[in-house]
Amino acid sequence: MTINVTSPAIIGTSSDLDQARQAVKVSAVKTGEVLTNYARLVEKYLDLTNAEGITTKWYERKGKLGAEVTEEKNRFKALFPECAKGEKPEAGQFAYGTGDVYWQRVKVASGYETPAMRAAKGGTEKKGIVEMCRAELATMLNRINKARADKPEGLDRMLEVYEELEVVFCTLGGNPDTDLK
Length: 181
Known about the structure:
globular
């Protein structure tokens, strides 16, 4: 049995998709509507629909079918020139990971559900949500620990934030001695 998959092809770039991508960069601080518009156009060009009308969302495409998605992601992320990991952005640069954060927001605007969203929607026990929160806090605390060791500027404020986060982390059952690096 042969299944034909149809999708509007984007060879190179599409002008309305290019414009929407550029709009995201220009208004990176007020992204709600702009990201939604861009997400709709990504859906228009990258969602796949087979002969039976079943649609595969663009963010679910993998392997050879995901090549166009990867190309679009690379074009999108190129709009956010980032500094190296652990360095402070210079003029015209974004913090490390900014492009990935905005790409994730585009996926969510297209209907992608993060693991935390799926857990909350699925009625996961409170314990599971607490564990996810604790894991996120551990990540933040570890980043602050690294930054604290590397850069003395703003240390006082960072220490205050760290102490507040550590209290929340411990309240959620975390152990700074074993859970933090």
